[in-house]
Design a protein that fits this description.
Protein name: Membrane-anchored protein
Shape: globular
InterPro entries: DUF347
Radius of gyration: 19 Å
Pfam families: DUF347
Helix content: over 70%
Strand content: under 5%
Number of helices: 8
Keywords: Membrane, Transmembrane, Transmembrane helix
Number of domains: 1
C-alpha cells in the first residue's frame, strides 16, 4: 500500500478529523476496549444466548455509529462508544462464524484478512490515502469504520486461532501479539517503514492483545486463566476506559480553551 502525495498529513492530526488523535492514551484505551469487548461478548452470549446477544449488540452498534457519523466534530465519548460497540458486536459476529457455521478459526482469520484488504484497496483507490488524519469527509469516515470493524473481527479470529487451534493459551497468545504489535516501531526506526502501514498493523494487533489478556483474566484456572469471570473483568475494564476517556475529553477541552485564549483579537 504505497503512500500517495495525498497522505502528506500523516504526522499532523487535522482539526477537522472526527477520529481520535494518536497518543499514548489512544493506544491504552484501544487495548482496554478490545479486552472489554471480548469479555462483554462472552458474558452476553452466555446470559442471553448467541443470537439474542448478536441482535442486541448489533442494534446498539448501529445507534453508536449513527451518532458518531452525525456528529459535527470529534467528541471523545461518542467516538469511544462507537469503538466499544464495534468491539463487542465484532467479537460476537466473528464468534458466530465459528460457533454458528462451524468455520475453522484459520479460515475465518484468512477471510477477515481478505475483507480488510478489499476495504483498504477501495479506500486507497477512492481517496488516495489510508491516513486516519485525513478522515475529514463522510466517505472517508465510512471507509474508516468499515476498516475498524474488519480489524476487530480479524483480531478476534486470529486470537482464537493462536490460543485454541495452535494451543498457545491466552497468556502466551497475548505475549506473542504484544511483541508483534511492537514490531512496526522497530521497522520504522531501521527501515523507514510507512507510518500509515505501521499504524494499521498495530491497530489490528491490539485486538488479539487486549482480548487474549482479558480472556486470561476471565477464564477459570482449569483453562489456564485467573478465574475472575467475564462479568468482573468487563466491569473493571469499563471503569478504566471511562476514566481514560473522561481524562482525554477534559484535556482536549482545556487545550481548546487555551487555544481560544491565545488566538489574536481584531
Amino acid at each position: 500500500m504505497p503512500d500517495s502525495p495525498a497522505s502528506s498529513d500523516e504526522q499532523a492530526h487535522s482539526p477537522l478529523s472526527k477520529v481520535a488523535a494518536i497518543t499514548i492514551s489512544f493506544w491504552i484505551i484501544k487495548v482496554l476496549s478490545t479486552g472489554m469487548g471480548e469479555t462483554a461478548s462472552d458474558f452476553l452470549a452466555h446470559r442471553l444466548g448467541p443470537l439474542p446477544a448478536v441482535g442486541l449488540t448489533g442494534s446498539v452498534f448501529v445507534v453508536a455509529l449513527a451518532l458518531q457519523l452525525r456528529a459535527k466534530r470529534y467528541a471523545a465519548p461518542l467516538y469511544w462508544f462507537a469503538v466499544i460497540m464495534v468491539s463487542v458486536f465484532g467479537t460476537l459476529a466473528a464468534d458466530a462464524v465459528h460457533v454458528g457455521f462451524g468455520v475453522p478459526y484459520w479460515t475465518s482469520t484468512l477471510g477477515f484478512l481478505l475483507a480488510l484488504g478489499v476495504i483498504f484497496t477501495l479506500w486507497q483507490r477512492s481517496e488516495g490515502t489510508l491516513s486516519i488524519h485525513s478522515v475529514t469527509t463522510r466517505r472517508r469516515e465510512v471507509f474508516y469504520w468499515a476498516a475498524v470493524l474488519a480489524t476487530f473481527a480479524l483480531g478476534t479470529a486470529a486470537g482464537d486461532f493462536t490460543a485454541r487451534t495452535l494451543g498457545l493459551g491466552w497468556l502466551a497468545s497475548g505475549l506473542v501479539f504484544a511483541a508483534l504489535m511492537a514490531l512496526p516501531v522497530l521497522l520504522r526506526v531501521r527501515l523507514k517503514f510507512s507510518p500509515v502501514l505501521a499504524f494499521w498493523w498495530a491497530y489490528v494487533i491490539t485486538r488479539p492483545v487486549g482480548a487474549s489478556f482479558a480472556d486470561w483474566m476471565a477464564v477459570p484456572h482449569s483453562q489456564g486463566g485467573l478465574g475472575w469471570g467475564t462479568g468482573i473483568v468487563t466491569l473493571g475494564l469499563s471503569a478504566l476506559i471511562l476514566v481514560f476517556v473522561l481524562a482525554s475529553a477534559i484535556h482536549k477541552s482545556r487545550f481548546a480553551v487555551q487555544g481560544e485564549a491565545l488566538a489574536p483579537t481584531e
